[in-house]
Design a protein that fits this description.
heterodimer; A: 371 residues; alpha+beta; Rossmann fold; OB fold (Dihydrolipoamide Acetyltransferase, E2P); 2 domains; six-stranded mixed β-sheet; five-stranded antiparallel β-sheet; 24% helix; elongated; B: 318 residues; mainly alpha; MetI-like fold; 3% strand; globular
Chain lengths: 371, 318
């Protein structure tokens, strides 16, 4: 087990900077998820830990050791590839044993560990099959097993679930989480799927354009996103944004948007919003925090016309139009909204987010800004 | 050429019969389509087999005729006498059939193995490493590939002729006038093809596999030997086989370079049988040709599994 530390790490491909000044400390035994859209630098960061990409500048440590120039084989890491990368000419058993044989582990010990791992990943009966004779889910397990059997200091996983169907993905997600609880090995997990990130990570690092945006527990990222990007990326369906500006002062201050959009300014934003009066701000609110009903003093409200209603069983997903803006809301399906209905949506003010129109940074005073 | 055509046929037949077992009835080609396909196949087969049948017939014919009477595989009074004569006294020179075959085998095996070994190392470097002049070198190799072998004959002759070697056990000899020299000349022609062919195949092996091996603890050499080589086996087999056949049937270099009787190869002896002034002993000539063709056929038979898949893959990827 080990920590992984990035200190001012940069990665350039010619003129293109894939990773910009990355600082991140991954704790011993932590399940760290790197998440972000394609091309954000998350996979590059993971490959730098693996030693498959060189570091242009900065320092990377695994444990106390600087590994900038250590080849992959000497880093004591194991990696699960998106493509699984199972050796096609070897049986499952040989795939699992390959790394151990290279490390000259005694035969009896290899045998024991391979069997034990096969049991863990429930592939005992398939040990003598070749990868092409396995289903996608089974291949994924073998890839996982090949990493487990090595008992490395750090597991690296590069979108390991992206080739599985939806049902298997949910199942395997839980299995990996369970595995982490049992082995307590440091895991660095890359995904573009924020649901995976939220459900699996002890902490999540959100990246965009090669820049680290915010690091925190799933709840911190959900409750107090540092900027508009993180706010929009974390949570599903994603947060609604409406351009507004502040009007009035003190207790009477309101966020006024297009058409008749007008919501009281929550008091915690007053200090940051006052100097920005008249300038463009962006308010954000999550679909699941909206409800249909009448507003009271701790709520904002607006009227909207339902365009599309997606029935989800106990809830329904409304795509509504409010003052020319598309807004998504999740409400109790007992409301029985139909397309074309005019509904009054209410929003608890303590769930409202406010961002600067230019920088996109949050105006909330209590957000832990990361290094 | 014959071997290649036969291979294509094997592949085609497998493709047609393989999946049709599991296909439903309506997916099968229509009767007309089947009939046309079968007819074409038979036609191709006849074209390929006809000269072989002819040669077999002549080799068995005791009358030493240059063309068989009618299309009977086994002529009347068929005899294996020609084979016996060829094996006991293939040429007027004091060298046995086995001696000739041994020389051909040395050249064929040597050129095949060395061109594959060097070829796969070079191909791996071209496929995976970025180094200065990579593109130019690759183009240069392609350029050599386009040269007809005869064009390199004179320069190779002059160059190899300048080298006098003195090896322990063997003694002093002129490199040009030796099997080793001929082997080197053949390899110079085979390597560009080997590199080109193997690079094309290595390009299709996913890099992830190498990276997985590195992370698993393999060095670059271990990755090459334990991951890349086994996966490249079909391409290696094809390259080795084509190299073997080239070496086995090679004629120009051996004919021009070799002066010593004990260095003669089968191809040289076969050529020498054609009478320029005297008449050619056709039965013996044919028997010789058949004996000459057997070793590549045997090699092909054993390597068939890899060669067919290798040729099929090479065909798709260009």
């Amino acid at each position: 087990m080990a920590t992984v530390t990035f200190e001012n790490v940069n990665k350039l491909y010619g003129d293109f900077q894939a990773v910009k000044d990355l600082n991140l400390e991954i704790g011993d035994g932590e399940f760290m998820v790197l998440v972000g859209p394609s091309g954000c630098g998350k996979t590059t960061s993971l490959r730098m830990i693996a030693g498959l990409e060189e570091i242009t500048s900065g320092t990377l440590r695994i444990g106390d050791r600087v590994v900038n120039d250590v080849p992959p084989k000497d880093r004591d890491i194991a990696m699960v590839f998106q493509s699984y990368a199972l050796y096609p000419h070897m049986s499952v058993r040989e795939n699992l044993a390959f790394g151990l044989k290279l490390r000259k582990v005694p035969k009896a010990e290899i045998e024991r560990r391979v069997n034990e791992t096969a049991e863990t990943i429930q592939l005992g009966k398939l040990l003598d099959r070749k990868p092409k004779e396995l289903s996608g889910g089974q291949r994924q397990r073998v890839a996982l097993g090949r990493a487990i059997v090595r008992e490395p200091a750090v597991f690296l996983m590069d979108e390991p679930l992206s080739n599985l169907d939806a049902k298997l993905r949910v199942q395997t997600r839980a299995e990996i989480a369970r595995l982490h609880q049992r082995l307590k090995t440091t895991i660095v997990y890359v995904t573009h799927d924020q649901v995976e990130a939220m459900t699996m990570g002890s902490r999540i690092a959100v990246m965009n354009d090669g820049l680290m945006q915010q690091v925190g527990t799933p709840q911190v990222l959900y409750d107090t996103p540092i900027n508009r990007f993180v706010a929009g990326f974390i949570g599903s369906p994603s947060m609604n944004f409406v351009e507004v500006h502040m009007e009035g002062t003190g207790d009477g201050a309101r966020l006024v948007g297009p058409a008749d959009w007008s919501i009281p300014l929550p008091s915690r934003y007053r200090e940051a919003a006052t100097p920005r009066a008249g300038r463009t701000l962006i308010t954000g609110f999550r679909p699941e925090h909206l409800d249909i009903g009448e507003a009271n003093s701790s709520m904002g409200s607006f009227r909207a016309r339902a365009d599309v209603v997606e029935y989800l069983g106990n809830e329904e997903l409304l795509h509504v139009n409010a003052a020319g803006q598309d807004v998504v809301a999740i409400v109790d399906s007992s409301h029985g909204v139909r397309p074309g209905d005019i509904v009054n949506l209410v929003l608890p003010l303590d769930k409202l987010h406010l961002f600067d129109g230019e920088s996109g940074l949050t105006l909330a005073p209590d957000v832990a800004v990361v290094a | 050429m014959t071997a290649q055509t036969a291979t294509t046929l094997t592949v085609a037949t497998r493709r047609r019969t393989g999946p049709s077992l599991t296909r439903s009835r309506r997916d099968q080609p229509s009767l007309l389509r089947q009939a046309v396909l079968q007819a074409v196949t038979v036609l191709v087969l006849l074209t390929v087999l006809f000269p072989i049948v002819w040669v077999i017939a002549i080799s068995l014919d005791p009358l030493n005729r240059s063309r068989p009477e009618g299309l009977s595989l086994i002529p009347s009074n068929a005899t294996l006498e020609a084979y016996g004569q060829v094996i006991s006294q293939p040429t007027n020179n004091p060298i046995s059939f086995l001696g000739l075959a041994g020389n051909s085998l040395k050249i064929a095996l040597g050129t095949s193995i060395i061109s594959v070994l060097i070829g796969v190392s070079a191909a791996y470097a071209f496929a995976r490493f970025k180094f200065r002049g990579r593109e130019v070198l690759m183009l240069a190799i392609l350029g050599v590939l386009m040269l007809p072998p005869v064009a390199t004959l004179t320069p190779l002759f002059v160059m190899l002729n300048q080298v006098q070697l003195d090896l322990p056990l063997v003694g002093a000899f002129n490199l040009r006038n030796s099997l080793l020299g001929v082997g080197l000349a053949i390899i110079s022609g085979l390597l560009p093809f080997a590199i080109w062919n193997l690079k094309g195949y290595l390009d299709t092996i996913p890099r992830d596999l190498e990276e997985a091996a590195w992370v698993d603890g393999a060095s670059y050499n271990q990755t090459f030997i334990k991951i890349i080589l086994p996966l490249a086996l079909p391409a290696l087999a094809v390259t080795a086989f084509l190299g073997f056949v080239s070496g086995w049937t090679e004629f120009y270099f051996s004919w021009m370079f070799l002066n010593k009787v004990e260095d003669q190869t089968l191809a040289m002896a076969l050529y020498a049988m054609q009478g320029q002034f005297a008449s050619t002993p056709w039965s013996q000539f044919s028997a010789f040709a058949i004996l000459f063709a057997i070793p590549p056929a045997i090699v092909y038979f054993f390597a068939q599994r890899y060669i067919t898949s290798g040729l099929a893959i090479g065909g798709v990827k260009g």
